[in-house]
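Lab notebook, design round three. We kept the backbone fixed and only want residue identities now. Task for the bench partner: fill in a sequence for the structure below.
Input structure tokens:
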């Protein structure tokens, strides 16, 4: 469809403006957002073909006709088991096998990056973007999946599925502040360790949307507040708080949480998330000497009621954001602090 107004000698269909307009109307009737990139390609290639130099035409018209000048990005791969469903959803949005330029994972927990290899296989033109500390786990997931199996047990087969390696030449490890090129706009990468040391967020500077991963907590529709996300083995309170403040400084118009969606006013949400995290952490510090079950029970007693979790939805968090896994991560964090104070070791981090 991108080839409508590109002359035939540059690989296009060479249609006139009227038949292109009819095609665009039909597309828009089916799906307005799919029509939009096609409309842009038609306008640009029409103007270019009429006014460009021979050199410009040869440089730009063939990739427009092939659809390669439009670059789409997907933030989060989902799990290995969800990759095929994601592919179908992208296809329904008009994004075919060669239309996806980037797969960005906010961190390498399996619900975010587990499907990166499977998706990379289905979208052979895509490069996988990841924090430098997560890159080796995408190329060689064995250690990551072994430790995940130790935590999640049989859920590895029923929920997460296998993690296919990503070919190393298709992985781009991005530093803080780097940009991802989408052709007409850019995504800015911001490192936000804390939830995990390999966590980053991305901001679309053209819309002000910030993809927050798990850096600000998790919630489902209907919850009045987000739940802190403090999983083992590397949760760190101070880094998480610093990440939340960096996100606030980016002044997003809109936050999008991987679990799940838009929580409303970003500044108010981030402020509330920080206060809530601090309260959870102080409970963990107080009970650091006890066991995980005791901490989990206390977290539930203190905080479950003010989340207003919808009654029909509690198990949605049981796997990756439950009170039990938070208790494990928080207790490890609290004890590592005590350990550092006593013997000055950093071994648990
Ligand atoms: Zn996570």
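Proposed sequence:
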């Amino acid at each position: 469809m991108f080839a409508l107004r590109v002359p035939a000698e540059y690989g296009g269909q060479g249609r006139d403006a009227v038949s292109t307009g009819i095609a665009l109307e039909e597309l828009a009737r089916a799906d307005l957002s799919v029509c939009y990139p096609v409309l842009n390609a038609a306008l640009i290639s029409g103007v270019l073909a009429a006014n460009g130099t021979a050199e410009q035409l040869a440089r730009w018209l063939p990739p427009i006709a092939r659809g390669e000048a439009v670059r789409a990005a997907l933030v989060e791969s989902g799990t290995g088991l969800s990759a095929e469903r994601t592919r179908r959803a992208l296809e329904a949005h008009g994004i075919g096998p060669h239309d996806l330029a980037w797969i960005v994972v906010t961190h390498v927990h399996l619900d975010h990056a587990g499907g990166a290899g499977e998706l990379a296989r289905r979208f052979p033109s895509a490069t996988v973007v990841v924090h430098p500390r997560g890159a080796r786990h995408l190329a060689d997931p064995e250690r990551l999946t072994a430790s995940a199996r130790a935590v999640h047990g049989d859920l590895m087969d029923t929920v997460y599925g296998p993690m296919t390696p990503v070919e190393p030449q298709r992985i781009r490890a991005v530093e803080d502040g780097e940009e991802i090129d989408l052709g007409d706009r850019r995504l800015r990468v911001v490192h936000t360790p804390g939830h995990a040391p390999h966590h980053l967020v991305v901001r679309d500077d053209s819309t002000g949307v910030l993809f927050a991963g798990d850096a600000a907590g998790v919630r489902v529709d209907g919850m009045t507040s987000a739940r802190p996300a403090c999983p083992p083995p590397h949760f760190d309170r101070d880094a998480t708080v610093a990440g939340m403040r960096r996100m606030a400084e980016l002044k997003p118009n809109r936050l999008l949480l991987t679990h799940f969606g838009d929580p409303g006013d970003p500044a108010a949400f981030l402020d509330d998330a920080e206060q809530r995290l601090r309260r959870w952490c102080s409970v963990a510090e107080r009970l650091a000497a006890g066991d995980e079950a005791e901490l989990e029970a206390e977290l539930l007693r203190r905080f479950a009621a003010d989340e207003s979790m919808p009654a029909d939805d509690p198990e949605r968090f049981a796997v990756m954001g439950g009170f039990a896994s938070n208790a494990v991560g928080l207790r490890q964090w609290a004890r590592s602090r005590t350990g550092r104070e006593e013997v000055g070791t950093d071994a648990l981090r």
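Keep this in mind before ordering anything: Residues 107, 109, 112, 195-196, 214, 231 surround zinc ion (CB under 6 Å).
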